[in-house]
Structure formats: structure tokens, C-alpha cells
Amino acid sequence: MFSSWTVCCGRVRQRWVFAVMGCLAITVSYANRICLSLAITQMVTTAESSSNSTTDGDTCSGTLSTSSNSASSETYDWDEYTQGIILSSFYWGYIVSQVPGGIMADKFGGKYTLSAGVLSSTTFTLLTPLVVNKFDSTGLIVLRILMGLGEGTTFPALNVLVAEWAPPQERSKIGTMVMTGTQVGTILGNALSGILLEYSPIGWPLVFYFFGGLSALWLVTWILFFHSNPDVHPYISEAEKKYIQDKISENTRKHTQPIPWRHMVTSFPLWALLIGKFGHDWGFYTMVTDLPKYMSNVLKFSITSNGLLTALPYLAMWILSNISSIPADWLIKSGKMTTTNVRKAFTTFGSVGPAIFLVAASYGECNRVLVVILFIIGVGLMGPFYPGLMVNGVDLSPNYSGTLMALMIATGSLAGIVTPYVVGVLTPNQTVTEWRMVFWITFAVFMATNVGVLFWQDGEVQYWNDLENRENDSKDVESEATAAKNLKNLRTEAVT
């Protein structure tokens, strides 16, 4: 029976099994992270009147609907500023653990480093209702900081695994499939949260129990059946193992020297990664964290409609992310464009398009259908960013891909910290005009950061990826040159 299982699994390309499992890892982590964004609309005591029949251009007409079960769970008196602090607190811990998480992933491998991150996310999600009930907003802020601290290993670990499993010719597709777990998690987190909030017999706590249980199921499956690299995988076919090893061995070597920080911090392509990631995450986190509040407080959608409609932009983003990875790989493989130009073009498309459509949505005012369509287009156009910049760290340095991803996520987390606070400060009354300023700021950040991408982004392996071997090769060349020179001198002396 075991041999039959091995033969069956050997027929399945294990690098694509990794891509699916990696995508699901980010899916459950992101669902745990963002389900609070919708749940908080039901956790907070609102001072809204039951109906508002007028529209003055700044306030949309309609009823601010709450869950039919909202009375069955406690609510809290948190103002917009407090909500902004709560929603940003995850990233306070998240930013701290990125670089240590990247170093751990590079040193110890991706499987268990990733497992530790998901375990943290699972545990703190399940504890959320208890902590909020006992310690109110302060307890929730501390819990979210700890959750972010533990989850900081997730993306660096996955980037290391991409470097181990994805041949360069398939890196855009595999890397994009893995990283677009952010959209899948956002889709599920919003859509299912809306349904759970509407029909839960216990109110908003069910959201956290449901997603915490889902990630626990993924974690058990991952630990039991997945392996860190093709060399130790018991079910991979010899043909696939050889294919992966041959394709990635050129630039991926075991290194014993310390991380070349001095060379990395003076590398313009690395700075392009960080600048581009900050710009993308400013727009992405603005939408992920605060779009449910916009749908609820400004457009006055019911909680179920809010969840489903908030999920649609990320469904569009997930589709475009994966579709755009196909021409990205084809352009590189066919030689029609260099890797550098492909990465720049797709990153730019994933920055300029969203900037335009998100601002346009703010001028749709209370035309709900138009605004939702513009949000879907705007967020959907962020998709090409993934084959553009998110996989670019593996291009630059397969050996230090975990560390590079850690630096990228840490930089992006700055946006995750700032954007909920900015939204909380700029939108105390939750009006269309207040939110329009939020989207104009997002437009400016997208455009400014993309300039750095156009100047500095690169798609080639950097010299500091393999300094140890370069130095050894240089020493070998010097030794050969010295030996040749000595031999020449001996021959000259002999002749003389």
C-alpha cells in the first residue's frame, strides 16, 4: 500500500503541490489577520441612527445594518482613533520579527520556520474572543502585537521554499501562486466573515473560532506531508528531482559566510524592492484594513453584502495575479524581454492602474454600483505586481531570498502600521470627502514609489548572492596567475 502511495505521489509534480500548500499557508494566515477588519464593525457600539434618509453629497442614504445576532455578543465603545490603533497593532509586532524570521528561514529551512508562524497565528486567533472579553481594547492590541510577532516568519520562510522548489523558468508562476494566498485569504476572510457574522448564534466570536480552526487543520497537514526541499522528499520522482536540482543549482549554493549586509544595503536593486513594496502595501493595506469600514459606514451596506462585496476586488486581484504570471514567464523564457524589463513593466502596471481607479472610486460618491466596480478594477490591477516585484527577491539572490523577503515585508509593514492610523485620523465622521483625501494620498504614494522601481529594479542575480564562492574563485584565478608567472620565470632562467 505504501509503495502504491509513493508511485501515485511520484506522478504528481511535487513543486506544484508545494505551490498549492504555500498558497494555502498564506491564505489561512491572512484570513486570521484580516477577519478582524470586518468583525470590528460588529464589535463596536455605533452611535448611528437606525435610518438616514437624506443624501447631502457627503453622507450616503440608507440604513447602517448590523448583524441580526449582534445582541448575542458584547460590543465595545471604541472611537475611530482606537479602532485605527487596534487594526494597525498587528504590524507593530510583524515588522520586528521579519529580519530574524528571514535569517532563521535561510539558516534552518522553510518548513518548520513557516510552521512556527502559522502556529502563532492560529493560537492567537482562537484566543481573541477570550482576551477581548477580559481586557477590552488594551488586551486586543497586545494580542495583535504578539500575533504579528509570531507571524513574521511566514513570508521569509515561503521565499526560501520558493528558492528551493521553483526553477527560474517557472518562478513567476510558482512564486505568484504562493504569494497570491494573500488575495485568497482576503477573499475568504471577508466573504465568510460576513456570512458568519450574519448568521452566527454567538455573534462575532465565531469568526475567530472558525478561521483559527481552519488554520490548525492546514498546519497538521503541512507538518505530516510536506518536506523542505526536493532532496529529502520521499514521494518526488527522480526525474522531477533532477530537473529542479539542475535548474536551480547554478545560483543556489550552501553558504557559510555571514549575510553580506554591507553589500546589500548599498545595492540599488534591493532598494527598488523595498520602495516598490512600501508603495504597493500602502494601497493594499488601506483597502484590506479599511475597505469594510468604508462599505459599512459610508456606503451603508449590510454586513453580509459588505463581506461579499469586499471580497470581490481581491478575487479580481487573485485572477489577474495568476494570469499575468503566464506572459511574464513566457516573455522571459522566449527571450522577447529581459527579466529586468519584465519585472519593471509588470510592477509599474500593478502600481499606476490601481492609483488611478481608487481615486476615481472616491468620485463615485454614493453611486454604490459604480464605486464597487471601480474598487474591483482598482484592486484587481494590483495583480501584476506579484510577477513584477514580489518574486524579484529570488531573482536577485536565491541564497538570501528569505532575508530579502523579510526586508520587503518589514518595509511593507510600515505601511500597515501607518495606514489604519491615517484613515482613523482623516475620517472621524466617515464622509465621502474625508475618504477622498485618503485615496489621493494613496495615489501619490503609488506614483512616487514607482519612480524608484523604474530607475533601480533589476532582474539579474547580484554579485553579493555568492561572495564566498566568488572570493574563492578569485583566489583560484590569482593562484593560477601566480603559478603561471613563476613557471615563466623558471623557464626564462633555464634558458639563460
Question: Would you mind describing this structure in some detail?
Answer:
The structure is a single chain. The protein has helices at 2-11, 14-43, 80-108, 110-151, 154-165, 171-179, 181-199, 205-225, 238-248, 261-265, 268-298, 303-334, 339-362, 368-380, 385-390, 392-396, 401-426, 432-456, 467-495. The protein is globular, with a radius of gyration of 25 Å. It contains 19 helices and no strands. Mean pLDDT is 84; it is low at 1-10, 47-56 and 64-71. Helix 2 packs parallel to helix 6, helix 3 (80-108) packs antiparallel against helix 17 (401-426) and helix 4 (110-151) runs antiparallel to helix 5. With 496 residues, it is mainly alpha-helical.
Quick overview of this protein structure:
The chain has 19 helices and no strands. It is mostly helical and 496 residues long. It is globular, with a radius of gyration of 25 Å.
Outline type:
globular
How many β-strands, per DSSP?
Answer: 0
Low-confidence stretches: 1-10, 47-56, 64-71
Write down the secondary-structure element order. Answer: HHHHHHHHHHHHHHHHHHH
Determine the structural class based on helices, strands and strand pairing. mainly alpha
Tell me the Rg in angstroms.
25 Å
Summarize the amount of helix as a percent range: over 70%
> What's the pLDDT, averaged over the residues?
84
| Helical run tally | 19
What is the oligomer described by this structure?
Answer: single chain
Terminal CA distance reads 79 Å
Strand content: under 5%
The major beta sheet can be summarized as: none
